[in-house]
Amino acid sequence: MCSIIGFNLETVEYRNVSFTVWDVGGQQRIRALWKYYFRDTQAIIFVVDSADVDRMEEARNEIHSLVADAELHDAVLLVFANKQDMPNAMSATEVSKALDMHCIMNREVGFTTNFLIE
Prior knowledge:
This protein is α/β, with parallel strands linked by helices and 118 residues long.
């Protein structure tokens, strides 16, 4: 894995398919740099902290800003509702509603809570 200004880059090969993955992080100070990584993006995986209710509006605004960007018009969007095991976590349905996922049109969208990162 290569780390670049707070971003991580990794190439993953699986069943004769090569993926270049950019982990760009969500810190406010680096979001302005996201746009430099949009070219040729085929998928966006957006991870949301299900237990951080106070930041849901911020997450919603970022997701809707991303899907509105012309360079990401054809990118598939997958939202992970992370930290479902936390005591005060919002359910997947609550997170989906808080993010106004129903408003995202003309795009393939996935939403999940079940994933494991080693």
